[in-house]
Structure formats: structure tokens, C-alpha cells
Amino acid sequence: MHSVHLAVLMTSHNRRARTLSALNALGYQQGLPAHATLGVHLVDAGSTDGTPEAVRLRHPAVEVMSVGADVPRNQAMRIASRNSRSGGGGGGSHRGRPGGPSHRWTHQLWLDDGVELFPDALAVLLRAADAAGAGAVVVGAVRGADGATVYSGRRGRSLALVEPGGQHPEPCDTYDGRVVLLSRAAHDLVGDLDKVFRHRMGDYDHGFRARRAGVPSFVAPSPVGVCVEGPDVPSSREPGIGVREALRRVTSVRELPPRQWWVYCLRHTWPWAPFLMVSPYARTAARATLGRWRG
To answer: For residues 187 and 189, what is the distance between their CA atoms, to the nearest angstrom?
Structure first.
């Protein structure tokens, strides 16, 4: 296998224990090529729980940049990607330890700080990348606490989850952004997450843009990690809330902000964009109205 230099992109916000667990799992990777290096670029969005300090103490080779709490996830990932291209990233480190000179990276890895990678995760992703070809994107399927797949590639109009195939990489149309490996060639063609999508939709948009650019996407043959979700953020589906509150939540940055949703619909759902644009808001209002009526 050729030399591998991974630029790992991560963001964090007030999840110190989970972020440290993710970095610990990243440091225990096995089966990597002998001269593989990692450069980890973490952008922390205004944590007040000591996340940046704890990372600097326990993982001194990780490049940590602190930004404001108003910087959403997708923008933080764009900053991390920019940092990976600027030559930062701490001292050299080998065989899976976080750190390393990633300005000469051969691959970028998007890694959500809520995912604990299995010990062979990077080896699985890299083998799948070799099988898929130099210009491909490889997605790592992530299990939940119950063992079911919760994040993976997506396929078809319904964006159904693609289950790992067990022997060969499985093709997909787009992907959840929890664990995604992009070759340098794929990144050169597709670029970063689009800045128009501040929190959600950016990963799906990236996958569809990759497909249009002729960049194939595949799900690695076996799951690569586990994600134990924390407490749910109150959503527009919460029972008992009124229509006004439900609409406020569904149009917030954490769900479907209208301008961003319209851009997504225009790009990827034409000619159904006008209908799909209004449908989630109409369903939300109807659900809240029916819930209050039943209550």
C-alpha cells in the first residue's frame, strides 16, 4: 500500500468526555500501513466545559483552534479543512496516534466527536478506498448503542441507510457525515462542505455534489464505530408544543432553516423543489395542531 497521510477533521462543543473518548479511540488504531501518519485538526466552538484545555493536555499533538460559540458545525469543519491545508497540525506521529504533518495529506477523514472508532476502523476504510479506486469517497457505517446502524451512506429517493455488505464496498448516493474518508483526488473535485449549510444538510449536499462530479461513493464493508447519543435536543416533534413553537424549532439552524432548505431543494430535488420546500413546515404545523387537539 502507498504512503498514507490522514488529515482528521473534528469539531467539538461542550462534550469533553465524548471528544476525549473519540480521540482515545483514534489513538488505538491497528493494522495501519507502517508509515501511516495522522494530523488531527480540531475546531472547538466556544466550549465552556474545558474541552480545548483537556485535549491540549492529553493529546498535545492535536491542533486545536478555538472559535466562537456561534460558529456552527459545518463552518467549523470548513475551518478544520482549511487548517489541514495550511501546514499546521503539530509534530510527527505514526501508526494511528493523533498528530502528524497532514499538510501533505493523501486523505481527509471527517470524524464526529460522538463516534468511538473500532480498533480496525481506519484500516477498514483504507482497504475499502483501495478497492474503490483512488478518486472515491468511502463512508464508515456507525452503530448505535443497540447495535443497529444509525449513520451510513444513503441511497435512493427515500435516502435509505446502506448497510455494510460484509465483503465488498457498497455503493451509495450520498452520506451522513459522521465518518467519511475522502481521497485527495475526490476533495480536489468536490471541495469542502458548502458554507451555505451551517449545521445540517451539508453532508448530504456534499455527497450529491460528489456524484455529479463523477466521484463515486461507497460504504465500507464493515461498521467502523459506535455512537451513543446524548440527551435529545428539543425538536419540532416534541409532543404537546404549540404550532408557533413547533414552527420556530423546525425553522431553526438545527433543523430546516428555510433559506438553506430551499437551496438544498433547488439543487437536488428539482422539479419537485417547490412542493418539497413547504412540505416539512406544513407537516410540522399539522402535527402540532393535531397533537394539541388530541391533548
So the answer is: 5
**Residue written as cell 451539508?**
202
The per-residue DSSP string of 220-281 comes to -SS--EEE---SPPP-TT-TT--HHHHHHHHTSTTS--HHHHHHHHHHHSTTSHHHHHHHHH
Helix or strand run (H / E) with residue 52: helix 51-58
Structure confidence by residue, pLDDT tens digits, 201-254: 999 999 999 999 999 999 999 999 999 765 556 788 888 888 899 899 989 888
Distance from C-alpha of 241 to C-alpha of 249, rounded to nearest angstrom: 10
The tens digit of pLDDT for each residue in 59-105 reads 999 999 999 999 999 999 999 999 998 864 443 343 445 555 445 89
- Can you read off the three cell numbers belonging to residue 43? 475546531
Backbone angles phi, psi at 185, to 5 degrees: -65, -40
Q: Check: CB of residue 76 under 8 Å from CB of residue 45.
A: yes
C-alpha cell at 144: 448505535
Q: What is the C-alpha separation between 144 and 225, in angstroms, rounded?
A: 9
